[in-house]
Amino acid sequence: MTQASKSSSTGFATRAIHHGYDPQDEHGALTPPLHLTSTFSFATAEQGGEMFAGERPGHIYSRISNPTLDLLEQRIANLEGGEAALANSSGMGSITSVLWTFLEPGDEVIVDKTLYGCTFSFMNHGLRKFGITITHVDMTIPENLSRAMNAKTKIVYFETPANPNMRLVDIAAISEIAKAGGAKVVVDNTYATPLLTRPIELGTDLVVHSATKYLGGHGDLIAGMVVGNAEDVTRVRMEGMKDMTGSIMSPFNAMLITRGLKTLELRMARHCESAMIVARELEAHSAVEKVYFPGLESFEQHGLAKKQMADFGGMIAFEVHGGMRTGIETMNRLQMIQRAVSLGDAETLIQHPASMTHSTYTPEERAEHDIGEGLIRLSVGLENVDDILEDLMGALPSVARKVAA
């Protein structure tokens, strides 16, 4: 470990670049090596036996651990303020590995009102089949969780900001209530990243990420991360991941994410700055009915955003007058902005949750969980913001004229 990474006062970007690696340990190689190996040999049979018994540290098989993944895990844990981390093959791999580890038939998971579509599907269409109760409550009001908690509640799970409607949850308040009731708190921190929000410092037990998004940052990989205390993360590694999901990240993807972390602070600053400009322009446009962005003073939870976010992120949700039809027409007029799911890429991406990422909800479920049929999700990229605005505003005026006609 370098001297800079040892200091508790070292800045975020410095730790993202240096933590856990000393070039002199690898022949002076400035860039950490990529370990493309499925298995590891032992100096003696006794050594191998000790590793399998957990009596000696070391790598056995890349489905369990790998030096390239280990470096990434150290860095993510450091940036999130956790003791340990686990790299997975996808964000859903992280979520499922965590939940399979800590749940058994008869348990209950209390979740927020809004979840990413695949998370919603896993909870409501997957876990329910194995005798696990899924209870949705509106966690924007912490007292709702207090009323819902019971002896069977083992996990409280939420996203903040939530995908796709940008709802915020008071992490500290919800964590306090959940822990008082004996439940673990799991937070999806994909939208905010550890640069903007660190849930563990606010009382959360475990943090999950789709590292596909901002952590990787370039739209060229699929990956997930789990962060928490060493005991919990070890359990997830050896139970939920090793034996149940097999959701291990490839060393090559770990290398790409480690590289992506080096520019995370720079990229997030641009994402945040541009998103604020875009959100204000959208809010002022006659074709736009409502904008959901934590940085706007009109956002209902703006005060909470200022309390638990260092900045407001690069994600915007908005609705245009005329609902789904005019929203789709708007997206189809775009020239530079790409119609695509995912988020956190260098490219600005736009999508329609009701027909895409959240189509696993029925129309009735979307209405119940505050996902409007005309809602549009925008991931503001790294292009020049004037070019983003020119494309977006160029699509919107025709919608405004049509509505007025």
Automatic annotation (TrEMBL):
Keywords: Lyase, Pyridoxal phosphate. Its EC number is 4.4.1.11. It is an enzyme of class 4 (lyase). Coiled coil: none annotated. Its cofactor is pyridoxal 5'-phosphate. It catalyses: L-methionine + H2O = methanethiol + 2-oxobutanoate + NH4(+). GO terms for molecular function: methionine gamma-lyase activity. Belongs to the trans-sulfuration enzymes family. L-methionine gamma-lyase subfamily. This is L-methionine gamma-lyase. It comes from Pseudohalocynthiibacter aestuariivivens.
